[in-house]
Every structure is written in structure tokens, then in C-alpha cells.
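Troubleshooting log. The previous structure file for this entry was overwritten by mistake, so regenerating from the original sequence record. Sequence copied from the archived sheet and checked twice against the printout by T.R.
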Amino acid sequence: MMNSNKTIVYVEDDRDLINLVSLILKRQGIEVIGVSNPHSALDTIINVRPGVILLDLMMPEVDGWEIYHNLKNLPETNGIPVIVISAKAQPIDQVLGLQVAKVDSYICKPFQPEQLIAAVEKWLTPDPVKQ
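Regenerated output below.
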């Protein structure tokens, strides 16, 4: 198992977007493990135990919400913060994600690098109460 403190897993079918996010976050000292095949996402997350999961919602074959619900139903992954990065940018999509599904953050594509960095660093920062 890797050191999860500065490692995130990004589940996204677009390899170019994985590479862009990796480039942005690497400059912050954060390692990004990209998973472009949503079928292997759960296994990768369980093996890596990242500090944060970035999750696309609209992928071929597997819906991001299905992955999210699987993560929340497993004891080994249900405490890992999940940040949705999605082209579903309508206010109702954000409300459903944040208030109904209870994702930790919701970022709409296209996004600013600063927005991504702030969200990831917020959830990678250890909570002193939990230490």
C-alpha cells in the first residue's frame, strides 16, 4: 500500500484530462493515479487507499454515481473524501451531488486550476480532531 497522504486517484475516461490534472497537482507535491477504465476503479482505490478520490460522473459503460455508491458502501473506502469533477454543471446537478449524494466537493468542467488545487488541498489536509 502506498502513502496515501499526498496521493489521489482520479477516475476519468479522458486520458488528456487525467494528464492535465496530474500536471496541475504534481506542482503541489500531490501524486495522481489516473484510472481511465471505470471497471478497475474500485480495485485501484482499495489497493492505493488515496487521501482523496476525484470522480467523473459521465463515463461510458459505468456511471460515476455507481462507483460513488460502491465506495460509500465499503468500509475500507467509505471514509475517503470524494470530489466530483463533472460536465454536469447545472445548479440542480450540484445540489444533488452535494446535498443528496453527500459528495465532499463538486467541481464543474471546465474548471480553473486554483479551484481544483483548493478543493484537493482542503480534503488532503488532516483533520486535527481525527488524529
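Strands lie at 7-11, 31-35, 52-55, 82-86, 105-108. Archived copy saved in two places this time.
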